[in-house]
Write a structure and sequence with these properties.
This protein is an alpha+beta fold and 552 residues long. Helices cover 27% and strands 19% of the residues. The chain has a domain of 376 residues: DD-peptidase/beta-lactamase superfamily (Beta-lactamase). The strands form seven sheets. It has a six-stranded antiparallel β-sheet, with helices on both faces. Strands 14-13-5-19-20 form a five-stranded mixed β-sheet, with no helix packed on it. A two-stranded antiparallel ribbon has the order 1-2. The longest helix has 21 residues. The radius of gyration is 26 Å and the shape is elongated.
Length: 552
């Protein structure tokens, strides 16, 4: 600071102030927040009417990009009259910077931190102690089915935004931009995965709604389909222990046991077009409407017409319909889409648009705009039919259910859970685990969806992650929310402007133009006029996921 004061008396000495950004939580919620960097020539031309100048920072992705217009403030500065030596004589004008607005997030800090930790720990465990050595990526979405509030959004691998501050070392750049797992891709909204058996509730609902089956109907699983024999088998045939068939079952048993034979029978009865229609009823095949850059993938809902237009083999076969009913064929979903499906089941058919922001306030706390929950569709599902599906999903977690082992010792009497396991194959890669659930089952407050790529099964790989998230949500883990480091490093540019974001369920989370720190429960955050350093590398395009098949 002394050098800065004396710079006019030190010929040949140039003092340059550089904006620096610090992220005290490193990669926590990195895909949610996104990042900013120096504006490029194309953006400068496009934003010429908004007062941007060379050297300004601008949001590139995530909330930084989506709400750039709200988060960006107005730059300040001073104009001096100087002598021939460049020494100031008098102040001509002084414009104080105006901070940007504050975003109030729906994200629950404790749930977010628990989800990140649980996913990291499970991947590390699987890599070290099991045959699933390639379990290195995945996604978690947690939301409130009553209003669409996103409570947690995790995509792994992630990136440390601190890496983008200043000049990025080539080794760090290679780790991010040449990583085959694409850490900059937000898998929660851009990853397209086979849902596996987590799709089976839609199969059951379609059959019941179309009166193709009744609750009293019984099915028999010998391990193999009675028509296609060994061309279509139940997952239990390949189980490592126990029986190789489910025997006689009801529809509820079919969900509890995740029986492929029951679902294949239902799929044949309703047909591929009806399965596709109900899939679209639940929002599959199109973005959910979440407002977060770079936007959502649509996923894919296949049907005979789609196959005729998009594949060399034009004909759709009955076997493909059966595979569709268990989450196979060409069907893909994003984690946020699957979370919406289970939110609809939990919320009696009502679907709310997912939202991350509850409101925006000015630096002085005045309301700028509010984002109320938005009901997008009421599926008007029969209460009787929903109760059948909900009972089946609850029994998945109970004794003998496919997810029972993951919830041994969990207080299900107090916090009953309804959920579904799924296991996906994507040759030549290892199996991936999928799990979707909501709790409490009798009065749902939270939906959790896990996709664990190359992480084994839904029951052994993904479900344990969901358990830890639910333990955090219901305060069963007895752990406080994480606390930010005492004093984040931050060098402020005099004419910089800033803004912040906060959660409703938890204290504010500072955003663009400031250190995006998650404050402690006793220390709400506000905008503070900080700025960030530019990035130095080009942004890679997200890589699309290839098609998958699924087993269970």
């Amino acid at each position: 600071m002394k050098l800065l004061e004396e710079k006019f008396n030190l010929p040949g000495v140039e003092v340059e102030e550089v904006p620096v950004r610090s992220y005290p939580y490193n990669d926590l919620a990195c895909h949610l927040f996104g990042y900013i960097r120096e504006i490029n020539d194309q953006e400068l031309i496009a934003q010429k009417d908004k007062g941007y100048r060379l050297g300004d920072n601008i949001g590139k992705t995530g909330l930084e990009r989506t709400y750039e217009d709200y988060l960006r403030g107005v730059s300040g500065g001073k104009n001096f009259e100087v002598d021939i030596h460049g020494r100031p004589l008098r102040l001509l004008a002084n414009q104080e910077p105006i901070p940007g607005n504050n975003l109030h997030l729906t994200v629950d800090l404790k749930v977010q931190a628990a989800a990140e930790k649980a996913l990291d720990e499970q991947m590390a465990f699987l890599q070290k102690y099991t045959k699933w050595r390639n379990a290195k990526s995945g996604a978690v979405v947690a939301l409130d089915p009553r209003n669409g509030n996103i409570l947690a959004m995790v995509s792994k691998p992630g990136f440390d935004p601190n890496s983008f501050v200043g000049v990025m070392p080539q080794t760090v750049a290679d780790k991010i931009y040449r990583n085959p797992l694409h850490p900059l891709t937000n898998r929660t909204i851009q990853g397209e995965f086979a849902p596996g058996s987590t799709f089976k509730p839609i199969t059951v609902i379609s059959a019941l709604m179309e009166n193709k089956v009744t609750v009293k109907d019984r099915f028999y699983c010998s391990g193999y389909d009675p028509i296609y024999k060994k061309l279509f088998k139940c997952w239990i045939v390949d189980a490592t222990s126990g029986p190789r068939e489910h025997g006689q079952e009801s529809i509820i048993d079919g969900l509890k046991n995740s029986c492929n034979i029951v679902m294949a029978d239902l799929s044949r009865r309703v047909g591929a077009d009806t399965l596709a229609r109900y899939s679209r009823f639940f929002g599959l095949g199109k973005p959910t409407g979440l407002n977060l850059y770079p936007g959502e993938a649509s996923g894919l809902v296949p049907d005979p017409e789609w196959k005729r237009k998009n594949t060399k083999e034009k004909d759709w076969h009955v076997l493909e319909t059966m595979m569709f009913g268990i989450g196979q064929t060409y069907l893909t979903v994003t984690p946020i889409q699957l979370a919406e499906v289970y939110a609809a089941i939990a919320n009696h058919g009502k679907m709310y648009r997912p939202r991350l922001i509850s409101k925006i306030t000015s630096p002085t706390g005045e309301l700028v705009t509010r984002f109320n929950p938005q009901l997008t569709v009421d599926l008007q599902l029969s209460p009787e039919i929903l109760s059948v599906v909900q009972q089946g999903l609850t029994e998945v977690i109970g004794d003998g259910g496919t997810a029972s082992s993951a919830f041994v010792g969990f207080p299900l009497e107090k916090y009953p859970i309804a959920g579904k396991t799924g296991t996906a194959q994507k040759p030549p890669y290892d199996n991936s685990g999928v799990f979707a659930c909501y709790a409490p089952a009798n009065k749902p407050e939270i939906v959790v969806v896990i996709f664990l790529e190359q992480g084994g099964s839904g029951s052994g790989g993904a479900a344990p992650i969901a358990r830890k998230i639910l333990e955090a949500y219901f305060n069963l883990d007895k752990k406080p929310a994480p606390v930010a480091p005492a004093t984040p490093v931050d060098v402020t540019k005099p004419n910089a402007t800033g803004n912040s974001a906060s959660t409703d369920a938890q204290p504010p989370v500072k955003k663009q133009g400031s250190t995006p720190e998650v404050s402690t429960p006793t220390a709400p955050a506000t905008g503070n006029g900080r700025s960030t350093a530019p990035l130095v590398q080009p942004e890679p395009k997200p890589q699309p996921e290839s098609s998958q098949s699924v087993i269970d």
